Amino acid sequence: MSLSFCGNNISSYNIYDGVLQNPCFVDALNLVPHVFLLFITFPILFIGWGSQSSKVQIHHNTWLHFPGHNLRWILTFALLFVHVCEIAEGIVSDSRRESRHLHLFMPAVMGFVATTTSIVYYHNIETSNFPKLLLALFLYWVMAFITKTIKLVKYWQSGWGVSDLRFCITGIMVILNGLLMAVEINVIRVRRYVFFMNPQKVKPPEDLQDLGVRFLQPFVNLLSKATYWWMNTLIISAHKKPIDLKAIGKLPIAMRAVTNYVCLKEAYEEQKKKVADYPNRTPSIWLAMYRAFGRPILLSSTFRYLADLLGFAGPLCISGIVQTHAFTSETLSSKEFLENSYVLAVLLFLALILQRTFLQASYYVTIETGINLRGALLAMIYNKILRLSTSNLSMGEMTLGQINNLVAIETNQLMWFLFLCPNLWAMPVQIIMGVILLYNLLGSSALVGAAVIVLLAPIQYFIATKLAEAQKSTLDYSTERLKKTNEILKGIKLLKLYAWEHIFCKSVEETRMKELSSLKTFALYTSLSIFMNAAIPIAAVLATFVTHAYASGNNLKPAEAFASLSLFHILVTPLFLLSTVVRFAVKVTNGYFSWGSGLATLSNIDIRIPTGQLTMVVGQVGCGKSSLLLAILGEMQTLEGKVHWSNRNRYSVAYAAQKPWLLNATVEENITFGSPFNKQRYKAVTDACSLQPDIDLLPFGDQTEIGERGINLSGGQRQRICVARALYQNTNIVLLDDPFSALDIHLSDHLMQEGILKFLQDDKRTLVLVTHKLQYLTHADWIIAMKDGTVLREGTLKDIQTKDVELYEHWKTLMNRQDQELEKVIRKTLRRAMYSREAKFLCAEEEEEEDEDDNMSTVMRLRTKMPWRTCWRYLTSGGFFLLFLMIFSKLLKHSVIVAIDYWLATWTSEYSINNTGKADQTYYVAGFSILCGAGIFLCLVTSLTVEWMGLTAAKNLHHNLLNKIILGPIRFFDTTPLGLILNRFSADTNIIDQHIPPTLESLTRSTLLCLSAIGMISYATPVFLVALVPLGVAFYFIQKYFRVASKDLQELDDTTQLPLLCHFSETAEGLTTIRAFRHETRFKQRMLELTDTNNIAYLFLSAANRWLEVRTVRSSHDFEMEAQQKGGLVQRGSQGKGALSVLFFFCVCEEDWPRANICCQSSSLFSLEEDCH
Hints:
By secondary structure, the chain is mainly alpha-helical. The strands form two sheets. It has a six-stranded mixed β-sheet, sandwiched between helices. Strands 2-1-4 form a three-stranded antiparallel β-sheet.
């Protein structure tokens, strides 16, 4: 057949009625804009692009400049799709003619190339910041709009209408070209790059000028956002070197914790103002969260709705593909075009691509919003902790375990609740649309299936409420268990000295048994929920098809049967989500203070502390000396009276607690405590506290990390570092709570003489010293004597000698006894011997630690491999019998489900009411009913087996973990931060208890579904095996690169969470010291930095998961279309098997849980590995 632009018919070249009356000429005219654009842009694109560049040099080229950016990309993609339809229509129309008419599809091909070139050209203009070159695009859209309008008018004059596909395509292209022309006009109006004297200058976003910001999702173009193309560099580089914090950089400003905290706080303050006039109403944190983060949630919901609506294109396309149609006319109508099997295959491919794109966009927006919310909530929780009264912590009203639960579990659960919100809102739309389409396919019998779903929905809701109650009960027991575990860990040395480990372990085990009892209820309802999710679709299908077989007079066709099955498959998701649903320095007048019990611990306190003098507080043990300091600092509840501070002094306080508190940092950082380093002052402080000999013995001097509990140091060394911290700060007031308690007599005397009398008093600083060393009273300018929570005497030593002779004589006797002890120590000259012994002890300790990780940060960054052995250990911890039962029931269940679909395919292919008797109908219905009943029963067995195995494994793993921890050597507790140990018993145990079993069930279900789908598709469409090979190769390389990057990012997420948890626990333990030093702001800033670091790691991990989803899903869709086309789609005479093949492929493409669950399970295994080892 010869080729020609207008065909071989001479009439095609007739122009007697005018050139515009010739359709071939009009099509040729439509080539002009495309040729113009290609001629103009190709030299610019391929010959030295980039000679003109932005004056602002940044580290990447993905920032946005021009208005209407996203709209331009959307319109361009829509135009490309219409061009594809135009090409298809032209080819089909040309195939029905005797000669080739290139004008039917060649302009569309050129249009597709030109449109693709236009978006590439625009992207390069945008990244080079040279808007004048956009003038070529403006001219192109104007010319394209004019030529398409001419073509549309000629079609209208020829009598064509909306029923003709070519007319519809041309009309849509006129609209799209007009809109793109309007976008270009708007760019000219805003940027003024032509036709105006003063062009507008645009600066790049502030984040992109910061070289440390490497999370580019908010700034890249729409295509890169949809495909996560910007992640390619990071994913590929992970194969060459591990991903570290430097590689992922900082968070953009809008995503930082402080930004979102301010936003949430302002929204909450608005709520407080609204209810200020209503005493009985409390401000709603939920409304505040909606005001602060409602817009992205609505955007995510919109994406979710679009994805759900596109999901229904699958069943409709399956119905059309299974049916066959023959067409004979030369021109296509819209209806005929949409009934073509190959067109439907392409539409199914595009619909699924768009559905997954919108779905991934919804996931990303929700996760990003959840991370922002989590950062804001962590900041609010931290501010609340800083305002807690010391009594709340000392009386057990708030424990480290509860704080750990808030930070590690409950904020994450709230984040995941936010993740489920769009799914919950989209659920009614899915159900209603599904029922409507089912009714359209099967008639009134579909209402029976819908009735089954509606009747069982209350049961689902009941199970969901019970599940929430069980989870709440479990959380209460978990908090109690963590509280007891925390008490054991804090007093572990005493327990080991008295060999009480097993007694206290038994107490924890008793609480754990209560928790396990609640977990049994939780597991039961979880298994029932999983069972209902799997059984309801089977029951609905059974009821629908049996009703249709007996009540309808029509035969059940393959198109109807398998389109209905795919609709029931879609309904599984909303049903699942239904079940998955908190001028003096200081003066105290008439003070009464309490630790929160309502009873006054300190009473009738009337004291004053002179400015610039040494005030000593003395008294017997338990008389209230330390409480007096804490009352002055505001840590006790004030029942009556008031503490008066001068404005200058209130914010200039240094404090050393009786119990030493150190940061997980170097010696130098613990002493300077955020103040600027002054070498001369630092040396004077260390000399005054006799620290220099101890520092010289440390392996790295004052740069040695000493941990949150002073793990490398003795009690005296820790005490002197805390005192040195107080001395180093340039504050007006210094409060020292018994700094001599852990020191020997000689060191106490040296600290008193050099540190207090010389260093502090030379600076004329106000000093309050709580002490039992009465021999130092002669140096005091002011003395406060305490007894039984009240002030016994107050004044100078001479005043007390005059007014209370008995008390003075008692002090004199004690002072003489202490002086005698000091003389004995001096005569024996034990100072050098003491330091020698300390040196030997520390050297021996360092030799023992030589083979271990001396630096705790090194432990954090150890890269681990995929813990397959840990996975096996978890499975076997549940018992080999339950493991065997789970595997066997799973295999049997999926075999029955495949048999149900195969039986339906055989039924719809061979059964016909006209030529078979009643017995045959009964035979097929009976077989289908038996298989469905067996499937429902096996769903119950598998769900119960998985949950029971998970519960048994959780019980055994926690028992082993507790015994290994408690029976560990003292050295382990000295070298391991408390927050790290508590994390094993809180977040990791929670993952093992509640997250791994349902994830394991979903993973096995999805994996077996994929395997059964591959087997069934290969049986029904053998040519699919040809497409399976490149599909497997593509998946292999995608997983190969993703696995390494995901492991590094998961490790970064874990290792950045631990410092955050430790910071919270450090703050809770050192609350008094932090507030006394007025360092709340510095610690808040540190918390915000740690939160942002953890959030950026999690955000990159989420983006990597989206990167994997986009590539694996799209590869599946590509090869789905290829296999369908190679197999000729559905052959006549084998419609049942062909429909079965298309159904399984649709189910696999819809099933994104295998990939998601593998990622989730891998993440869980890292937590499991920590507990196992």
